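Entry: Cyanophycin synthetase
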Amino acid sequence: MTETHGTPAPDLKIIETRVYRGPNIWSYDPAIHLVVDLGSLENFPSNTIPGFTERLLADLPRLDQHHCSRGRKGGFIERLYEGTWLGHIAEHVSLQLQQEAGHDMRRGKTRQVKGSPGVYNITYAYADEPVGLAAGELAVRFVNNLVQPDPAFDFTTELEKFIKQAERTAFGPSTQAIVDEAVSRDIPWIRLNKASLVQLGQGVHAKRIRATMTSETGSIAVDVASDKDLTTRLLASAGLPVPRSESVRAVEDAVSLANKIGYPVVCKPLDGNHGRGVCLNLQDAAAVREAFPIAAEQSRRGYVIVENFVTGKDYRCLIINGRMEAIAERVPAHVVGDGVHTVAELVDITNADPRRGVGHEKILTRITINNAARQLVRDQGFDLDDVPPEDVMVKLTLTGNMSTGGISIDRTWEAHPENVEIAEEAARMIGLDIAGIDFICPDITQPVRETGGAICEVNAAPGFRMHTNPTIGEPQYIAKPVVDMLFPPGAVSRIPIVAVTGTNGKTTTSRMISHVFKGMGRKVGMTSTDGIVIDERLVIRQDASGPKSARMVLQNPRVDFAVFEVARGGILREGLGYERNDVAVVLNVQPDHLGLRGIDTLEQLADVKAVLVEAVPRTGYAVLNADDPLVRKMRRKCSGQVVWFSMAEPGSEVRDYIEGHCRRGGRAVVLERSDLGDMIVVKHGRRSMQLAWTHLLPATFGGRAMMNVQNAMAAAAAAFAAGAPLHDIRQGLRTFNTSYYLSPGRLNEIDVDGRSVIVDYCHNAPAMRMLGDFVDRLGESLSASSEVGRPSRIGVIATAGDRRDDDIRELGEVAAQHFDVVVVREDARLRGRKRGESAGLVQSGVQAAMDSGARCRRVDVVLDELEAVRFALGRSNPGDLVVLCVDQHQSVLAELESVSHLAQAGARSGDEGGDPDFVQPDEEITDESPRELA
């Protein structure tokens, strides 16, 4: 261990916090990521701080259950005594704090940040995001306090506050039971608010629950159940046993009605719940007058039900989807005398039960002493300070609701069949899919029609905890029939997810895949850097390649197929935002975004993009670029099958490997070259199926745009893996073009006064090489058809300011190899650089290439994007090729329209007969909006 000098100080602090809401670079599951600095504590492992381990275990003794790296209970304790660093200890404390709050979290990892002594990455699992974050913050404070005690810090008090926070944000017992059952069936779920609104399933298959109310629950049925007077009349019309009752709004009317019905009576709110305002066993008019305002206060419409008091035990029958699933006898809140303690002391002893909490936060509710309870105790001949005799029950409420402190006894298998039939018929009459039928009768084992008794209430959204956690008796697993009702056996809960990543080509490939499945009639939800598209409508215009956008698509009830463009930034920031993808597509790993968020090498960038491959289940597929060595290595991280795509020549090492893969039954998409052209071929096992000639695919510009040939091959492989028939894939690729309608900002070709203008998003050196190859091929074609000599090639280029200096200069060097004139601009977002700084770096790269004999003969700097476009067009002549690498493609396309006198000529690859106008920058793109030159 490290030799220590001096005295340890409480220097542990959090310097960065991230929340991963899906698979990420650290874990397959959601995780909290803390970057912590140990400060001076880097020199003080646990065994060098006197008494540290003993104090830690005294406050959190259950740390002795942690395995740590030893793989056995007590392994972490061994590490503590041997000496381990305090960042590692904070990780284990974060996990244990969550366990103290009832969240069984066990996965964690602590690693030192390379090149930063004393700085560590801590990751640990969480079930509830606010609780997970609070656990990490409390863990750091707690560890610091163990190093040097702070009189203002009391761990017991802080732990209680933490547990109460966890209880406030946790699901109630009913919601949690349903969610747990869904998870056990591999049904995905999303929490839609901070309360109990939950989505089960994805897209078109989604169902919603709020506590025990479901998306199948009829609003009319809920309204009927909320109106107790109407409920009673409906049940009576079906011949079901109900008490005599009517509703009134005035106290004297209530007295008159009670006199008519006959005492004793019950007063309760017309539309109350949880037993609030219910006054039982009223013996005379004075009692009715006293009870009326209590009931009226809980009635939203001011009506009070007066009904005859039915004597007997209180039973709750739970009916789910027309069937009785559980019955519980509800015993009102009470205490039992022991001859020693007072009534008040007995209440305190009862409330000390750890199963009791506030409201619905635990399986039992604490008993509250209010005026009604005091009066009820006096009616039984006691005061709160009296000591009741041994074994004498003292009731504290008259209703048996769990929410007022009652207990439950399971009676599911004891009920008489006739009583079960009555309860089921009551639920059918009201129309509820989940109903709580409240029976009052002497004995549920005997027919109520013979023994007397009645249905006193029908509850929509009844609580489950009296059945799932009865105080006495066997628990009933009633979440199962609820999930069976929402997702019958064999029902689908997930929609197919295709996720696409890579340094370049993500957006175009995603659009191609989406286009294929749209052609098959699927309602596709797609995310990309341009926004979220739902069934061909752009619903949100922004960079939507992150996890939040993916979750928005999965929540949309129209979507039955999802295509996600997944960017590096979103993975590092939040993870994937969903649990798994059926098909993962990795196009390439090239030097871009390096030096950001701790990603400094291509290997590290590959690890980030490989998260998609790790999120492929055993039944899924990873579509990988065999021509990229870093992508090839990702095959080892795939639990499912690998589908290769490659442009390698037959006989090459890569192609031989693919042939071997296919002979073993694998799948691949390759390029077969001949004198007639290049053919995309799908291989499955020993079968080879011709898909399409590349020069017949509009997006490839007659086979010249090799980047789109590769994108088309990746899209074909992904669609084939996702189950699309070959002819639908072929039709999709043949009808996909780079018009502004289908592919805004990606290789849009427009004729502007006789000039061929290409609008593209190219912004890094690898993409510029691919674009430059396309420019060379297209330029040769234009030269061959030109009548005025060799056309000039003018390029407007830029890159993001957060790239490394060398990467920015390299962009200029590559561009200089393919353009005669280069115009350097800048994005509106400078990303940390001064105005003109990144443009200066690009310009220096162009100039260096020019000095080495590159094609370029002139470089100009025009910082504003639209001014740069105007400048480039002004430098060009009819017949020239102008390539605009844009940031805001809508503004650029609108500008081109304004300067063009030949707008009707339109885009070479655009739709025929379209609207000739461009989308203005402030217009929302919809199906009715013009998007391209016709």
